[in-house]
Amino acid sequence: MSYLLHKTKVLKTDTTMTLQSITRSNCTLDYIEFKVMHLIQDDIQKETLDGLELCLVVLEGKVTVQTSDLIVENIGTRQSIFEKKPTDSFYIPLDSTFSLHATTPTAKVAFCYSPTTKKLSPKLIKASQNSIEHRGHYNNKRLVHNILPDTSSISDSLLVVEVYTNGGNFSSYPPHKHDQDNLPVESLLEETYYHEINPPQGFVFQRIYTDDRELDETMSVESGDVVVVPKGYHPVGVPDGYEGYYLNVMAGPTKKWAFVNDTDHEWILDRK
């Protein structure tokens, strides 16, 4: 199995399940950590951020989040990711202590972390603040919810986005990369893809490759898996009959999304 593919590994307590836990110590990334938790109603989770900023994305259900400065109650907008509507998120700054608990029978929350030295303010990111895009043409169509774009001043390093891809379509396509600190042409951003699939027994394909093919991995990805992208191009293909979802986290030395396409495949953008 590729070292870039992280399968779901359930760590269970009486009231929570950790479905993914990706840290800088167990993967190849320097700028991103990522976790997904399944919470049971009224269980309280507490955490202190040490040198990290965090964006909590309420994937399903509702939660209440409290920091020393702010409490927000019952955030979250959907019972299923595949309702395809934006959700609420919450930004927690460097070195904060916070707690959260589910206010619905269950909730699923993604924890998107990045190292930082800049202390900002906690902030609710309402679903209504997500910009919505329909990208691509032909069999390259996807629906995008921008939670933390590079234009946002809420976070220091984190970029967070949700993407839906219909069956028979490719996403993150034509293949593009952002692994060189060469602004304004290209930025250095690592990336994670948290995948879910509808119906859940399906699978998608993701390829990670570099121009010199020093890195060239193609993975069959199932619902709940995470693919880490330290560098290279990273397209996703969704088989007919299934819907693909992924939550992207990006971070690097500069919070700017500037990418270059694989020139071998850029011609598809010019079709009429």
Automatic annotation (TrEMBL):
What InterPro entries does the entry give?
A: Deoxy-glucuronate_isom_IolB, KduI/IolB_isomerase, RmlC-like_jellyroll, RmlC_Cupin_sf
Does Cell wall biogenesis/degradation appear among the keywords?
no
Q: What Gene3D superfamilies does the entry give? A: Jelly Rolls
Q: What is its EC number?
A: 5.3.1.30
Keywords linked to the UniProt accession: Isomerase
User: Which GO terms label this protein's molecular function in UniProt?
Assistant: 5-deoxy-D-glucuronate isomerase activity
The top EC class is isomerase
On the tree of life, the source organism's domain of life is Bacteria
The record's listing under PANTHER family reads:
5-DEOXY-GLUCURONATE ISOMERASE
- Name of the protein in question: 5-deoxy-glucuronate isomerase
What is the scientific name of the source organism? Vagococcus proximus
